[in-house]
Each structure stands twice: as C-alpha cells, then as structure tokens.
C-alpha cells in the first residue's frame, strides 16, 4: 500500500501551505478586519481580571453554556426501554438535533420520530400531526411502546397530549391497548436532566397504572426479591455493565429501570434492528413489588424518586453517580443495606487492587489543581474522587446546578462535601454559569487540568490547560463512554485518564533534562 | 450503462408497501425513476418542498437550522444570538465545521453558542427586554464584534415578541448592524425556508451598505460555499489563480463587510444554489449582476466549470484557465489512476441536503462509481430538474426519504457506499455498509476543487475498501440475492 503513496494534504495541513497563507492575507482587504494591534489588545483584555469582573456581571446573555434542553433527556430515557420508539411532538428540526447530538456522543444510531408540526399546527394545534404520526411510526418502525415528549413549540401553544393520544385511540390508528407513555418537556424549564426525569416518571407511572397491579413493596411477588436500579441521564454505557457486574457479585436480583446501554452499544452484525436491549415493559409494574429502589442520580431523578416513594411506597436510596473508592464504598453499603446481603469478597478484593493503583499514582496527581464542569450528580461524584486522592478542585461550573434533593440545594451539598477535606478548601462553585465564565476563571486563576466534556475544549485551549474528557457530550474522542467511570473499575479508569494526562504533559513540556524513561 | 427501470420501480413499490395508505399515497409522489423522458421533460412529476409526513423519521431539520446553522452562523465577525430556549444553539454549536480564520471569542464568533436561554418567565412576559440587555452585554463581552444577528427559535414567533423593534432601537444605540431573523423552526417544511428568510435578511439589513474602494473587471463573489473543512478556500484559490478577484465569500469564513460590498462584483458564482439563489437573483435584478452556477466537485466538473467561468471574461482569463487546468490535470490523473481501479463500478446511494446529491455525482463518476439512487432532504423542483440529466437511466431519485426507506433501498440495491448524515451513519455501520457523512465530510475535507478531490478520492477509497467491513457477516438475504444473479 505504501509504495505508491501520493501526497494528499487534508484540512489538517493543507491550509498551512504558503499559497493558502497568502490567500488569507489577500482576503483581508475585503474583510475590513480589525487591525492586528486591536485584535491583540482585545485578546489581552479578555484575559484580564477587569474583563472577568464584567464577564461575571452579565445578567442576560449566556455564552457557551453546559446544558441542553429537556426533550434530549426524554429521548435517552425512552431508549432505556424495550422496543420503545421516542416520539417528539412539535417541530421536526428539534428531533433531528436530538438524534444528531446523541449520535455524535455515542457513535450509534438514535431512532426517534417527530410529529413534524408546522405553521398551521401552530394555529390549530398539533392533534392531527400526532395522530398521523402515531399511525405512520407504528407501521414503519414497529415499536412495542411509543414514548411521547414535547418541544417548546407544542408547550407554548398548549397541546394536550393526553387528550390527543386518547383521540388517536378513538380513531383507531393505534389499538386501545398499545402502550403510549408521555410527558411534557418544555425546553424553557430545567435542562436535559429534567427531561430525563420527566420521561422516566412518565413511563414508570404509565406502565404501572395500566397494569392494574397494586404495589406490594417488598413482597417480591412473581419476581423474587428485587432491587430496582436507576442510572439516570447516563452518558457511559460502560457504567451499566459495571453496575451489573457489582449486582451480580452480590448475587441479588435486580431490575434496571431505564437501560439504554443496549441501544447505545449495539453490535455490528450485518443487520440493523432499530431496538436493542432495554428494560422489559412487563418488568416495570413488577418492579413496584421490589424491596427497594436505588437511584444513582438523585438530582436528575427527583420526580421519579418521589413517585416510587409514594405511588409504589418503596424505600428509595438515592445517591449521586458513585465515583471513586469512597463513592463506590457507599454504593456497596447501600446495596448491602437494601438487600441484607454482605459485600462480596470479590469486590473487596477489587477495591484493594484499585487502592493499590491509587497509591502508585499519587505522586503525580497529589495537589493538582483542577477545574470541573458537568451535571450536578456527576460533579458530586467527581468532587468526591478528587478529594480522596488529593486532587484539589478549584473552579466548579454547573450550568444546570439550580437543583435540590430532599430540600438540600446541590450547591450546599457540594460545598459541604468540599469542606470535609483540606483539598477542597480552594474550591468555588458557580451555579448557572457557563463556559465563558470558566474561560475567565482558567485565565485568571490557572489550574493544572480541566475536567469536563468536549465543550470545555475551547476554554481549555484559550487558557492552555490540558483537558480530561469526562461527562457529556464527548464528541471529539472515541469510545470513552464504553468504559465505566463508576464503581472500583471506574475509579481505576478515571485515575488512568487523569494520571496519564499529567504524565503526557510532563513529557510534552519537558525541559530537556526531565524526559524520563521511568515515571 | 444503465440500471433496469422496471426493477427500480418494483423496488420502490416494495419499500412503500409498509406505509399506511394515506402516507403511502404521499410518499409515492416523492420517488421517480430516471428515464429518458424524465431527463428531458422540464416538469418532472416528483413532489418536493412540501410537508414531511409526521412520524416517519424524516431527515429534515428546521428553518432555524437553515438560517443560523447554514447561512448566518459562518459570518465570523458577527455574534449570532440563538434567541429562545437553550437547545437549538447547543445542538448547532460547532458541529458544521464551517472553518474561519481569526481568534475565537475575539474577532471570530463562529464556533460559539450565544443564547438568551429562555426561561418560563420569558415565555410569559416576553423576551424583548432581555434581548436588549443581551445586545448591550455582547458589545461589552465582544468589543470587536461588527454586528449582531437574532436567530429566532420557535417560541419567539408564538409569544408575539417584536425582535424587529428591539433590533432597530439597539442598532441605533450600539451603532452597529443588528439583524432580526424570523427563522422560527416551525416555519416552512425544512431548512429551506430558513435559507430564504436568512437571504431576505441579508438583503434587507446588510447588502449594499458599504463600498469597495477600488473595483475591477475581474471582481466576483463566491456565493453559497460554507467552507466546510475549508471548501471555500480550496475553491477560491482556483479562481484567484485564474486571475479573478474574489471580493466576497458567502458565507463560509465570511465577514459583515463581504456581505455589504458584494453588490460591487461583476459576476456572482454560486455553488449551493439551493440555499442562496435568492440573493443572486436579487443582485441580478437590483444591481444587474449576472450569476452562474458552478460545480467544483471532481475534476471533470471542475474543468467544465472553470472554462464556463473563464468564457465570461476576456482572453487573458481564458488563457490562465487553460494553464491552470494544464497544471493540475496531471495531479488529477494520478489520483484517478490510483483510486479508480479500487472503486470502479461500486454502487453508491446518496441522500444529502439540497445540492450535493447532484453536485457530487461527477466526482463519484470520475472515480468510476455508479450513483444508483440519490435524494435530497429539502430540494425544490428546480433542483430535481437539474438532477435527472446528471443521473444514469434507471437510477432512483427521491425526495425527503425517511430512515426506513433509505435502509430498505440500501439493502435492496445492495449498495457499496451510502453518503448521508450523522443521523444515518451508524445504522449503516450495523449493516456493514460503508458510509461517508456528506454534510460534514465526515470530519475530513475540503472536498471542493483540485485539492479537495484528492481528499475525496482518498476518503472514498478508505471507507469503501476498509478491511473492517470484512469482519461483519453480510446479511443472509443479500447473499442469497447475489447468488441468484
């Protein structure tokens, strides 16, 4: 293959060629650009404390936020159930955006349909769109359940999903017993995590109500003793496998309520199936009889937890994403408490191996100052991990952090957690802020590492801080979501990511003397 | 060579059988098999630019995507406000790869998400007051921004906000162009109306507002090149080498000034006709500027286009054009000599936006590949009229095809390559069908011009002939059909 290699410079190198450098220079005469000095001054000014003060003074404009809108989360929730087709009621462009956004992260297809409402539907309502849409979607994509959420268009004009779905049944486009769950997901309230919660609650309550089963928590009726487990808006398919491994080690029975790891990590077999894996619809009403429910994103799943606690009368243990050794310890304690089973020896041994790895790497991560960005539950997990290994969180931005659990605000919990350790003493939380704020923070109070999604790459580059990609979305690196970040194994993966970034930086920035073979 | 017309018809019929009656009747109108008749008739029967059926998984986007995502977003020295709730701006942030020079956040605002992040109170009380504050804050945050555009999301048009009044008032206060764009996502049936609305906004608020110090006989505009992976740069270099002076680039790597001075050109050269034809027609009427469509995909079409462009100028340009072609031709021949044998007779299915489904046909044919089916998300009748003559007999032309239709067709036609978008991509990876994203160039490019064709050829070969596909078992049904042939 290499014998007849041709020179084929692409977007990476082509435009560095002299002819393109000249082209750019020449083009400037038509651009009426700012002069170089002006640009240099504006750049320098944007890096100052004075600019940062103005930046934090903004009242209205949002620049590079770290959150998305509700229906995106609803689609992920719907894809956690067996043969369920997400149906977005409203403008069709939204659905194309959701499908693209999720597929860019997971590198997997996102089947979802829209009711394609246009101007006439804005005037007359989207009922006929919803009815026609259900008929077409069921005929083409043969789902066993349709899960309807809304775009802001349908919310603003006040479409009544329940009535419309009822009319669709009356018209006979879907049979009376065909399951259609739904929820309202206005984009101008909350974020993608809110929408995940809304759809999860919508599906659980719908499937439970229609089953006619009366919840008898703890009876284990028909299913044996079971634990319900919810992972929430989970960008890591690997986390499902890790939780499964942990629960199997306990030898307990369990049901995932919402498991999109099938749809978002399906095999290339030569055939495309539309639907892979997911929680079985029939398992949902039976889940009402489980011993207890374990939620791993307590801020995301607020309404779902309340529903399970009240309608199913189940004890609910709600944690944030269990990252790190301490976070995993707490997870295992919770499982042990809920099931009455002891922590299995295999996990204790795994813990030991991971702690051993942490001791090996501590010289390179100890005292490293980091910036963190993510959803509330991820941040609680990440802060915990940092503190237990001696990493010092400094700037923590949470665009969708105005949330609470059990009447404790996320901010208060995070600050209390930081206060438990000397390594948290420098940290400051920025709730509702965006990545343009983060840029100012990184420039004015530099850190060693930035930890967050691909969207953080711009601020990290401006401040010349290496980025460790953790969270959602990760568009520009491959397959990271296939590896768990929770559990002991996840702690090892987080450690590996972080320590090797530090070591890469040491090599990259070597002084000529310290280019060491052994580290 | 040609494909069998009857068998193509049968395949389409079979695919549409799955639909309920009402939708089937509609979808039938969006397919046509290419025959001698359809190539010559000026009015093809194929229906386009009408509403998508609900629930069918249309690939289409919305007006906002057409305006912010396509036309306005690449104008680099203006700040584009995604006005409304958080999502639209988030999903369209930095995903289109419209490259631009400059420093991000300082004098280049392309790969950014600037939004009013509507909350419930904004829906109830309106967003006009907030929009004013946002505009002031933008000038504080981005002192070098030359202007602002307001890209409306769905709620803006539904709650009765007056973004025009706000823009007018603030334009005066801030002394810069502020352009309200009514591209709410529910308007129209696809991205296409968004292009039109965005074009009208350029016409009404920007075009003709600045002068060019010196004009010359060779001044041209590049219109409808969004500089995906550097496309416009790879195109511009050819025009400049030929002796033309490109005074405006719309809109990839474009600036406010280039929007304002374009009326001073002698000729408009339009690549993506679908998204910017409104402006070249307007400039023809208002300023008497002639325009021509060109195609810089693949050497055959590029030679043809370069000569057609040169023919509109004097002998100097025509001589330059021949010299240019003579200089590049050996490089192009070497590329074809290398890649054509590896790609000869490979069957391709395309489904792209409003241009490339026909414009790239020549590039594939230069590599010996056969386009067996081609479709658009949001093309209009005129696009189809131009498409039929470019396609081989018996090929399938489709409008707004659904995910289901594409998947069925790809299998029934047993194609070797599908070219479409990110929503489609991973489905074909499951099936074991080689796939290239033809909106973003699959994170490669440029594909325009001679520099671009080299990359195009390399990419198609890489994807069609990658050994990874051999690791996937071919679907049993397809094997059987192959055996029976």
Sum this structure up briefly.
The complex is a heterodimer of chains A (519) and B (485). Chain A has 20 helices and 16 strands.
Q: Please state the overall shape of chain A, judged from the principal axes of the Cα atoms.
A: globular
Estimated structural class of chain B: alpha/beta
E-strand count of chain A: 16
Total helical segments of chain B: 22
Sheet having the most strands of chain B: 6 strands, mixed
**Side-by-side strand order of the widest sheet of chain B:** 1-12-11-10-13-14
Structural class determined from secondary elements of chain A: alpha/beta
> Span between N and C termini of chain B?
18 Å
Q: Report low-confidence residues of chain A grouped into runs of 5 or more.
A: none
Beta-strand portion of chain B reads 5-15%
What is the CA-atom radius of gyration of chain A, in angstroms? 25 Å
Average pLDDT rating of chain A: 96
Poorly predicted ranges of chain B (pLDDT <50, ≥5 residues)? Answer: 479-485
Percentage of helical residues of chain A? Answer: 40-55%
Distance between the termini of chain A: 38 Å
The helix tally of chain A amounts to 20
How many runs of DSSP E, i.e. beta strands of chain B? 14
Greatest interface: A-B, 105 and 122 residues
Q: Compute the gyration radius of chain B: what is it?
A: 23 Å
Q: How large a portion of the residues of chain A is in β-strands, by DSSP E?
A: 5-15%
């Amino acid at each position: 293959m290499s014998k007849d290699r041709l020179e084929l410079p692409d977007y990476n190198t082509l435009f560095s060629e002299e002819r393109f450098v000249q082209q750019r220079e020449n083009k400037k005469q038509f651009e009426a650009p700012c002069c170089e000095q002006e640009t240099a001054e504006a750049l320098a000014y944007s890096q100052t404390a004075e600019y940062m003060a103005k930046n934090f003074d903004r009242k209205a404009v949002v620049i590079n936020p770290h959150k998305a809108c509700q229906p995106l989360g609803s689609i992920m929730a719907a894809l956690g159930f067996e043969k369920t087709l997400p149906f977005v009621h409203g403008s069709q462009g939204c659905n194309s955006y959701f499908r693209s956004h999720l597929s860019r992260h997971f590198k997997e297809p996102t089947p979802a349909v829209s009711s394609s409402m246009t101007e006439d539907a804005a005037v007359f309502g989207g009922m006929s769109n919803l009815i026609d849409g259900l008929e077409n979607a069921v005929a083409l994509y043969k789902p066993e359940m349709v899960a309807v959420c809304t775009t802001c268009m349908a919310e603003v004009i006040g479409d009544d999903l329940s009535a419309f779905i009822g009319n669709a049944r009356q018209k006979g486009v879907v049979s009376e017993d065909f399951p259609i769950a739904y929820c309202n997901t206005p984009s101008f309230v909350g974020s993608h995590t809110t929408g995940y919660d809304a759809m999860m609650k919508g599906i659980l309550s719908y499937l439970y109500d229609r089953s006619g089963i009366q919840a008898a928590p703890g009876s284990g009726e028909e299913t044996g003793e079971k634990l319900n487990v919810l992972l929430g808006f989970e960008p890591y398919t690997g986390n499902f496998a890790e939780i499964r491994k942990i629960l199997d080690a306990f030898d307990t029975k369990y049901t995932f309520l919402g498991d999109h790891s099938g749809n978002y990590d399906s095999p290339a077999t030569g055939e495309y199936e539309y639907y892979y894996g997911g929680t079985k619809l029939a398992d949902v009403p039976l889940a009402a009889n489980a011993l207890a429910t374990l939620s791993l994103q307590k801020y995301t799943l607020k309404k779902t937890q309340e529903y399970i606690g009240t309608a199913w009368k189940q004890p609910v243990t709600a944690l944030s994403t269990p990252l790190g050794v301490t976070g995993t310890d707490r997870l295992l304690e919770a499982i042990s408490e809920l099931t009455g089973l002891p922590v299995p020896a295999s996990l204790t041994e795994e813990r030991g191996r991971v702690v051993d790895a942490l001791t090996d790497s501590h010289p390179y991560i100890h005292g490293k100052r980091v910036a963190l960005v993510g959803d509330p539950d991820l941040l609680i997990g990440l802060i915990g991990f940092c503190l237990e290994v001696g990493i010092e969180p400094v700037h923590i931005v949470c665009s969708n952090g105005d949330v609470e659990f059990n009447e404790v605000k996320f901010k208060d919990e995070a600050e209390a957690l930081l206060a438990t350790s000397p390594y948290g003493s420098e940290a400051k939380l920025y709730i509702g802020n965006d990545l343009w704020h983060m840029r100012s923070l990184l420039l004015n109070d530099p850190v060693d590492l930035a930890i967050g999604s691909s969207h953080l790459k711009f601020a990290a580059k401006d401040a010349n801080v290496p980025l460790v990609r953790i969270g959602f979305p990760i568009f520009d690196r491959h397959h990271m979501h296939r590896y768990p970040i929770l559990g002991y194994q996840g702690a090892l993966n987080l450690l590996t990511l972080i320590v090797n970034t530090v070591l890469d930086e040491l090599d990259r920035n070597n002084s000529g003397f310290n280019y060491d073979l052994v580290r | 060579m040609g494909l069998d017309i009857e068998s193509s018809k049968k395949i389409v019929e079979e695919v549409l059988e799955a639909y309920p009656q009402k939708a089937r009747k509609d979808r039938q109108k969006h397919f046509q098999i290419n025959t001698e008749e359809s190539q010559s008739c000026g009015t093809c029967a194929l229906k386009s630019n009408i509403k998508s059926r609900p629930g069918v998984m249309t690939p289409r986007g919305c007006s906002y995507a057409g305006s912010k995502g396509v036309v306005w977003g690449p104008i680099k020295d203006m700040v584009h406000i995604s006005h409304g709730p958080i999502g639209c701006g988030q999903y369209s942030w930095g995903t289109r790869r419209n490259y631009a020079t400059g420093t991000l956040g300082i004098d280049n605002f392309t790969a950014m998400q600037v939004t009013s992040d509507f909350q419930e109170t904004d829906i109830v009380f309106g967003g006009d007051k907030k929009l004013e504050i946002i505009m002031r804050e933008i000038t504080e945050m981005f002192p070098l921004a030359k202007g602002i555009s307001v890209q409306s999301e769905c709620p803006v048009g539904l709650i009765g906000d007056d973004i025009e009044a706000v823009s007018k008032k603030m334009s005066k206060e801030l002394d810069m162009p502020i352009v309200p764009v009514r591209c709410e996502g529910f308007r129209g049936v696809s991205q296409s109306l968004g292009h039109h609305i965005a074009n009208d906004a350029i016409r009404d608020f920007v075009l003709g507002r600045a002068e060019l110090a010196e004009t010359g006989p060779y001044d041209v505009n590049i219109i409808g090149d969004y500089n995906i992976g550097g496309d416009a740069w790879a195109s511009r270099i050819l025009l400049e080498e030929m002796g033309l002076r490109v005074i405006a680039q719309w809109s990839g790597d474009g600036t406010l000034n280039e929007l304002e001075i374009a009326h001073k050109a002698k000729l408009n050269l339009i690549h993506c006709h679908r998204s910017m034809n409104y402006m070249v027609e307007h400039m023809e009427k208002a300023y008497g500027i002639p325009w021509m469509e060109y195609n810089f995909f693949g050497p055959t079409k590029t030679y043809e286009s370069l000569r057609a462009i040169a023919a509109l100028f004097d002998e100097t340009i025509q001589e330059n054009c021949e010299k240019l072609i003579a200089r590049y031709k050996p490089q192009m021949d070497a590329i074809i000599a290398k890649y054509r044998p590896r790609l000869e007779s490979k069957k391709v299915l395309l489904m792209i936006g409003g241009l490339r489904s026909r414009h790239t046909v020549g590039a594939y044919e230069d590599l010996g590949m056969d386009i067996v089916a081609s479709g658009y998300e949001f093309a209009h009748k005129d696009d189809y009229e131009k498409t039929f003559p470019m396609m081989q007999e018996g090929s399938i032309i489709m409008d707004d095809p659904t995910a289901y239709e594409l998947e069925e067709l790809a299998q029934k036609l047993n194609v070797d390559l599908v070219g479409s978008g990110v929503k489609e991509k991973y489905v074909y990876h499951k099936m074991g069908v080689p796939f290239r994203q033809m909106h973003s160039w699959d994170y490669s490019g440029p594909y325009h011009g001679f520099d671009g064709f080299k990359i195009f050829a390399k990419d198609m070969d890489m994807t069609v002939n990658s050994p990874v596909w051999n690791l996937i078992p071919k679907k049993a049904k397809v094997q059987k059909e192959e055996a029976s042939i």
